[in-house]
Amino acid sequence: SQTIHQWPATLVQPVGSPLSLECTVEGTSNPNLYWYRQAAGRGLQLLFYSVGIGQISSEVPQNLSASRPQDRQFILSSKKLLLSDSGFYLCAWSAGLAGLDTQYFGPGTRLTVL
Amino acid sequence: AQSVTQLGSHVSVSEGALVLLRCNYSSSVPPYLFWYVQYPNQGLQLLLKYTTGATLVKGINGFEAEFKKSETSFHLTKPSAHMSDAAEYFCAVSDRAGGTSYGKLTFGQGTILTVHP
Which of A33, A79, A26 is CA-nearest to residue A52? Predict the structure, then answer.
């Protein structure tokens, strides 16, 4: 069966520090991968999605970036964190073509920027 | 562009009472529709989804939802609430396959369900 991992589970970082969040998927090949941010009271916002290694699409302009160095690895990064980057970050995967398959979510990373 | 509206950011019911969480969507094409549940500090778990076929969809934990095209709605119901149903619920819509729409979901703002004894 497929599983999705995220780490770290929680993170507290000072403003201006770098960020690296990692997501890995097991039990499937060539998944579509997604990064979402969930800020308090603001629902889920799609940040990035990827349909293959090295293929990243950004949904919103921000100081975050994403990379996909391996088929089942998705990394969210920042060079300098802002207070507004605080939130709950969720990674998700889906198989197959657009809209045909369900997105499955990881356990999330709680990021607090101080 | 697609959009999802969940009426009521908070819903409170008594244990054993009917649960009704409302979702209306806007889509230029026949949509795929989803309901997810999120427990505190956890990821989202799929409750049910509508793609094609029967418009009444049954999901896990006794939940079901009915796709009503004429009303552009996909409300979530459960006949009898349980304390363990307390969580946040998200409705989402996805374009059908085609073009460059790679499974992107548009989520509603969420509804927090409280169940009291």
Answer: A33
In this complex, the residue of A43, A51, A103 whose CB is nearest that of residue B110 is A43
Which residues does A25 contact at the CB level (< 8 Å), separation at least 6?
Answer: A2, A3, A4, A5, A31, A33, A72, A74, A93
Q: How far apart are CA A100 and CA B32, in angstroms?
A: 8
Please state the rounded mean pLDDT for residues A17-42.
91
Among A residues 40-59, those touching chain B with beta carbons less than 8 Å apart: 41-44, 46, 49, 51, 57, 59
Amino acid sitting at position A7: W
- % of residues, chain B, pLDDT over 90: 71
Closest by CA to B33, choosing from B73, B70, B60, is B73
Structure tokens at A13: 């970082």
Please give the Cα distance from B29 to A47 (Å, whole number): 23
Q: In the block, which residue shows the tokens 């920027």?
A: A113
